[in-house]
Amino acid sequence: MSGFKEQVEARYEKAGIDPRGASLILRAYNRSLGVEERTIPWEEFQPPLPGELKSYSDLLGYGDEGVGRYDELVWIILNGGLGTSMEVSHAKSLLKVKGEETFLDLILGFIGKIAGETGVEIPLILMNSPATRDDSLAALERYGDERANKTLPEDFLQNFFPRVVERDGSLYGAPEDEESWAPPGHGDLYEAIYGSGVLDKLLAAGKRWAFISNADNLGASPSPQLLGYMSSSSIPFIMEVTERTKADVKGGTLVKRGGSLNLLEIAQVADERVGEFQDIDRFKVFNTNNLWIDLRALKDRMEVGGLELPLIVNRKVVDGVGILQLESAMGAAISSFEGAEGVVVPRGRFAPVKTTSDLLVRRSDIYVKGETSPLEVNRERSQALGVPVVSLDPRFYKSVESMEMRIPSAPSLINAKALTIKGDVRFEPGVKVIGEVIVENLKSDPLLVLSGTVLEG
After folding, report:
1. Is residue 351 situated within a structural domain?
2. Which residues contact 75 (CB under 8 A, 6 or more apart)?
3. Which of 345, 375, 408 is the last residue of a domain?
4. Which of 144, 217, 320, 393 is the most buried (most CB within 10 A)?
5. What is the pLDDT of residues 10-65, one digit of tens each?
């Protein structure tokens, strides 16, 4: 371990990366050697019993209490992703979603809406990566004096871990090589906000509660009901979960282990148990990655050694070399706080964008600027249609650029249940989709769907 320690410390120094990450990777690597933490004995888990998870609908009476606590709240956005799955080379939060408005524009617009209604501007703080920091902070500058909360930091940086060669425990690549580094998962949030000094600054400014969400989830918002329930009941940690469907079987689920709530990720499940993990009748909810935390409780834990989150050993192959990425999930902190709870929230609070198919749905008339979140489902859409299922052929629509070339303006999907596109299909503006539609083009030449066309199935 001593040789590995020297390698790690030298790598951080040569790369010019904050050296506090070195102690974190050393601790994580030592844990990975001591015990195989990738899988956990299946018999230790049970689904929560009825009533052990609160229902959002039962907390509506806490709204006034929550609004009264808005001046103690901060909204932290996980903003480290580039949207590489959509071949985006800048922060995903800077993608346009509604007209010229980006994810970040819509979030800031919603904060402005809250301020107009309550007189309180909830500060927004980004957890950036080096790849997203400059562009994102430049985007915030466009708002200038419109943002009242200028006394708090606008962001802090996540840590980075060197990738480890599985075969011999050496460090992969060279310090200056981008491929030799990897983020340690969003479980790094707690170390990053503490080590950067931002946690102390928030507490000194009178901020007691934090709402945390992903930048690409425009259904997430600082719910006054959840804030009111948390503050009045002195709950240190809340995870928002929502009902699982067959499309969500890979998402982490809440389980009972040793009498407390735990987050169970698919990477921690033995291969022969994955089918049981994905049983939506047994494990009925999944983690939305919308979290609430008492900042004082977090400070107390960090002062006595931090949070020992379950380690996820992520095995990958990079240029033919088997490497280890040591990661953790921020939702796993639910087991670190006595009295932590899970709350089952409406599906509308979970609307992430992971693919161009997701982005097309958000750009369509299914979603409008919301009253209770940056985006919400258009009230003119029938609830019977459920969550829309859109599938774009990855051969032609994988990147945002290729999608925008073929679909410069989203078709109307408000009355669509599903849309599947196979082959090279191009849409003029003003196309409507009704019901379940499949458009297939088997020819090499593009198929053009003309303006005014109604596709019905």
Report:
1. no
2. 107, 111, 122, 123, 124, 125, 210, 211, 212, 213, 222
3. 345
4. 217
5. 888 888 877 778 888 888 888 877 654 556 788 888 999 888 999 999 999 999 99
**317 forms bridges with which residues in the sheet?**
322
How far apart (Å, rounded) are the C-alpha atoms in residues 84 and 66? 37
76/125 same-domain check: yes
- Residue 219's domain comprises 2-345
In the chain, what's the furthest Cα-to-Cα distance?
A: 69
Phi, psi of 397 (to 5 degrees): -130, 15
In three-state form (DSSP H/G/I as H, E/B as E, the rest C), the secondary structure along 184-229 is CCHHHHHHHHHHCCHHHHHHHCCCCEEEEEECCCCCCCCCHHHHHH
Of 291, 326, 345, at which residue does a domain stop? 345
pTM of the predicted model as reported, rounded to 2 decimal places: 0.93
Kindly state whether residues 140 and 267 are assigned to the same domain: yes
Instruction: Say whether both 103 and 183 belong to one domain.
Output: yes
Single out the residue of 157, 142, 67 nearest to residue 104, CA to CA: 142
Beta bridge partners of residue 425, listed in sequence order: 447
Cα-only R_g, the chain = 23
Task: Provide the 8-state DSSP code for 263.
Answer: E
Q: Give the CATH number, domain containing residue 396.
A: 2.160.10.10
Total number of domains constituting the chain: 2
- Tell me the sheet residues that pair with 436: 418
Q: Kindly give the residue spans of alpha helices, DSSP state H, lying in 35-97.
A: 63-67
List, for residues 65-84, the tens digit of each pLDDT value: 999 999 999 999 999 988 88
Inform me whether the pLDDT recorded for 108 exceeds 50.
Answer: yes
